[in-house]
Amino acid sequence: MEDKIFDIVTDLIREDIGKEEAIHKLLVLNSVSNCRCNEPVKCRNCDEMVVMVSEGEFCPSCYC
User: Fold this and answer.
1) 39 by DSSP, 3-state: which?
2) What is the pLDDT of residues 2-25, one digit of tens each?
3) How high is the pLDDT of residue 64?
């Protein structure tokens, strides 16, 4: 993630992108880094640790 931030700041300094585009890219990068997709979470129904593609998806074991 640090490399991506560095690239965005470098592009901004070189004036390859504008301030608004840099802000947009940083916000998108931040929202992606906060995403819990593909991280193990505990199923609310069976308490099994499963990897969900997206939050709120059914547990593949019990389809809760």
Assistant:
1) coil
2) 899 999 999 999 999 999 999 988
3) 47
Residue 53 and residue 37 in contact, taking contact as beta carbons nearer than 8 Å: yes
> Tokens 């389809």 correspond to what residue?
63
CB 39 within 8 A of CB 28: no
Q: What is the mean pLDDT of the chain?
A: 75
End-to-end CA distance of the chain: 34
Tokens representing 3 are 């490399």
Separation in Å, CA 16 to CA 2, 19, 51 = 19, 10, 38
Question: What is the full DSSP assignment across 4-56?
Answer: HHHHHHHHHHTTSS-HHHHHHHHHHHHHHHT--TTSEEE-TTT--EEE-SSTT
